[in-house]
Amino acid sequence: MTDQTDTLSGAPEPLTLGWEEWLSLPDLGLPAMRAKVDTGAKTSALHAFDIESFGSATRPRVRFTVHPIPGREDLIIPCSAEIVDRREVTSSNGETEMRYVIESALSIGGQSWPIELTLTDRRTMNTRMLLGRQALIEHVTVSPNDRFCQPKLSYDVYHSTKIAQAAPRRALRVAVLSREDNYSTRRLVEEGESRGHSVEVIDTARCYMAINALAPEVHYDGKRLPRYDAVIPRIGASITSYGTAITRQFETIGTYCVNGSQGITASRDKLYAHQLMAKHKIGMPVTAFASSPKDTGNLMGLVGAAPLIVKLLESTQGKGVVLAETKKAAESVIDAFRGLKANFLVQQFVKEAAGEDIRCLVIDGKVVASMKRTGADGDFRSNLHRGGSAKAVRITKEERETAIRATRAFGLGLAGVDLLRSSDGPKVLEVNSSPGFEGIEKASGKDIAGLLFDAIEMKVRPNPVRRRKTDSATEA
Q1: Which H or E run includes 183?
Q2: What residue stretches are annotated with the ATP-grasp domain (predicted)?
Q3: pTM of the predicted structure, to 2 decimals
């Protein structure tokens, strides 16, 4: 027992390094790198490019990317870390530059300890890392005439599917396109920042675009917006056209958008939305549309007997939705809407729903939460904005599959799907591409913002690049 204690508490075993060694930086997701060991250099340096600072002034962070294998510009590992310093460094050729300084664990020869690293472009060097004397702790000695005194590693790890799973969670830069300081926007910022990400709220209407083939850009307040890992569109109904144009510009740049421009456009156009759902054979109330006032009677005949729902195509949050309990009432509402030159749908009223609907929140193809919404007394509309109430509900397999199929039909990564329970199965009322979080988080107890960031982190996590047939197996 005494011998074991002495061994565990004793000094680490001596470690001898040659002038070149294999090592890993696990905190940065770099499992194998070749480094030059140089006692003539004070600081250690890591090859990095696309270096970009972000985060708060009190805890600044830096994002950068690394080509860990010399000559393999196609293999890119994105990294991030806290900035511990920014200092002037003079290289061996006499050039001086300001560099960000980060800290990371160094693993070599079965031992590990923290070191400081400066970030700089070393693409012209034979090794992607320089290990300076500050990183060499007491029990480490350097044999300058030897090479690879410690076990060799292999670049093959970068071509394994396990690297993406084992990579540390890297900080992301995320934009929320929103004009409102509401619960959902605040939750997204709060959740993202709690995970170490940088989350910026961008007023959609104040964005403007440089549209060209070689360098499409989005500008804001006189400056080009930075490269984002992900964009979360929260486009208001009043600026759908411009908001989707901005989203489309981010798509052109290559940014991952939680909801794409096509899906948002389709969800906002109620006529097109119902046509799209019909095309995908998704259950919905019988719906009819006509332009000419001469077709009013025929239009109502297609839907069935009163009561009927008359719904403006631009309606949101229950506004512009009218229940006509008799044929005469329906004709009056339709005449009124026609007089306003408004486009509208006439829809079957599902009596058995009894003023209740179900909101299913779908993220990345999965229903993550659901709630039953009940309208206020005397109101057939169940929208929470109209005074309705909500509670958690257990949905059926058919309802779950319907919500997922509807979301998939629109190509949305985040959607609120509103269902009615009818005698012949679930009927989709609407697919909302900008669902609110407050009601469903409170009703279900689920962390919706957290689940969304889980999906975003998985989507933008870098996948390992497969080895090209012309690549050599391992660099000596």
Answers
A1: helix 183-194
A2: 274-457
A3: 0.70
How much is the average pLDDT of 83-91? 86
Q: Is 317 left (phi over 0), alpha (psi -120 to 50) or beta?
A: left
CA distance linking residue 36 with residue 39, whole number of Å:
10
Mean pLDDT check: name the lowest of 51-60, 191-200, 292-301, 338-347.
Answer: 292-301
Residue bearing tokens 């109620």? 270
Q: For residue 285, give both structure tokens.
A: 């109330």
For residues 185, 187, 193 and 197, what is the CA-based torsion angle, rounded to 10 degrees?
-60
Instruction: State both tokens at 212.
Output: 């060209």
CA 426 to CA 283: how far, in whole Å?
Answer: 6
Residue 141 placed within a domain: yes
Asked if residue 76 belongs to a domain, the reply is yes
CA distances from 230 to 180, 238, 333 (A): 19, 23, 44
Tell me, yes or no, whether 423 lies in a domain.
no
| Domain with 142 in it | 12-166
Helix (H, G, I), strand (E, B) or coil at 226: coil
CB distance 192 to 199 below 8 Å? yes
Query: Which residue pairs from 133-140 have beta carbons closer than 8 angstroms and sit at least 24 positions apart in sequence?
Result: 133/38, 133/39, 133/40, 133/41, 133/42, 134/42, 134/43, 134/44, 135/44, 135/106, 136/17, 136/37, 136/39, 137/113, 139/11, 139/12, 139/13, 139/14, 139/15, 140/14, 140/15, 140/16, 140/17
**Residue 137 forms part of a structural domain:** yes
Spatial CA neighbour of 55 closest among 31, 33, 81? 81
DSSP secondary structure code for residue 156 in this structure: G
The number of domains in the chain is: 1
Strands 173-177 and 198-202: parallel
Q: How many C-beta neighbours within 10 Å does residue 53 have?
A: 13
Write the CB contacts of 28 (distance below 8 Å, at least 6 apart in sequence).
Answer: 66, 77, 79, 81, 104, 168
Q: For the segment 245-257, what is each residue's pLDDT rounded down to a tens digit?
A: 999 999 998 899 9
Give the C-alpha separation, 149 to 444, whole Å: 58
Q: Compute the distance between CA of residue 176 and CA of residue 185 in angstroms, rounded to an integer.
A: 7
Helices (H), 221-269: 240-253, 261-268
Q: Is 365 left (phi over 0), alpha (psi -120 to 50) or beta?
A: left
Give the CATH number, domain containing residue 71.
Answer: 2.40.70.10
Alpha carbon distances (Å) from 321 to 311, 358, 368: 4, 18, 28
